[in-house]
């Protein structure tokens, strides 16, 4: 896990890139003036907001991140067709359920990304990360974390946990190396 | 040609948005209702906005990619509002239907 | 052909808005109503984009983006209020 960026003037390289692209998209142009202005803003805004942020792990393997993003996009489309069929089909046949998935990730940022992916993909909505941080003694890290998810049509609990862990959590662990 | 692509994308998007709302009305308890709007509606919107992108790129004078911003924004925020909603539902101890399995997995909040 | 398709999709979104409104009125719980409102926000973005397409102008894009942001922020704020009894602690 790497928390500090390589250059001190560019604390969050990917956020800077995102800001730059969003600036160009908002103005819908590729003119030189906007490219220069966008570059300046993309460097200045992260520098100005850096002191307010808690340090988050940086992406170590960008190539793998892009591949994982494409996989997730593909999963979103197929999962949505499945969910549409489930919704339009008879409601009485659905077996909803709550499932606890043990997490290997420790940092809040990768856990957030995992919870969002789970929410967007097959018939699951992430509900909660256990244990409650408020219930622990001050400043202590929990030894084990769980993600509570609600499943629209639960068939095989173990298989679902395996899918979430292997398909979505393992690549995230590699991308952030934590 | 572009007209066909736009029409198909628009129809797919409209169907998904409609399915999301049908899920919102049809499902028996809150936790199941949440699945329609967080997933189907988001993908439907992405499809509609892609159609708008193709439309404005072919009819306008230049390429128009800014519609993709709304798609990305909706894709990023839909899980978060879903998470906040399910959290407040658990906090209010909403009833889930009887055949829901694994209800003991819900822990009391502080 | 495109005009007809846009009209059909207008009708689809209109029906979804009505369904959301039904859920908003019937409830039965507060999170249900918030969920219905959130979905209505998203559907109204679809309506605005479609209207812009049928008028042939890209002017409505900014309005759609603003509604997307306001909808998200208000959903989160109301949920936070339900959870904590306060929005900014």
From TrEMBL, chain A:
InterPro entries: Cation_antiport_E. The chain crosses the membrane at residues 7-26, 32-52, 64-88. Its main location: membrane. The keyword Membrane applies. Pfam families: MNHE. It is found in: Cell membrane. It is a multi-pass membrane protein. Keywords: Cell membrane, Membrane, Transmembrane, Transmembrane helix. Signal peptide: none annotated. NCBIfam families: PRK08965.1-2. Belongs to the CPA3 antiporters (TC 2.A.63) subunit E family. This is Multicomponent K+:H+ antiporter subunit E.
UniProtKB/TrEMBL annotation, chain B:
The keyword Transmembrane helix applies. Keywords: Membrane, Transmembrane, Transmembrane helix. It comes from the Bacteria. InterPro entries: PhaG_MnhG_YufB. The chain crosses the membrane at residues 6-25, 37-56, 68-86. This is Multicomponent K+:H+ antiporter subunit G. The lineage of its organism: Bacteria, Pseudomonadati, Pseudomonadota, Gammaproteobacteria, Alteromonadales.
TrEMBL record, chain C:
It is found in: Cell membrane. The keyword Lipid metabolism does not apply. Keywords: Antiport, Cell membrane, Ion transport, Membrane, Transmembrane, Transmembrane helix, Transport. The keyword Zinc does not apply. InterPro entries: MrpF/PhaF-like. It comes from the Bacteria. Its main location: membrane. Coiled coil: none annotated. GO terms for cellular component: plasma membrane. PANTHER family: NA(+)/H(+) ANTIPORTER SUBUNIT F1 (PTHR34702), NA(+)_H(+) ANTIPORTER SUBUNIT F (PTHR34702:SF1). This is K+/H+ antiporter subunit F.
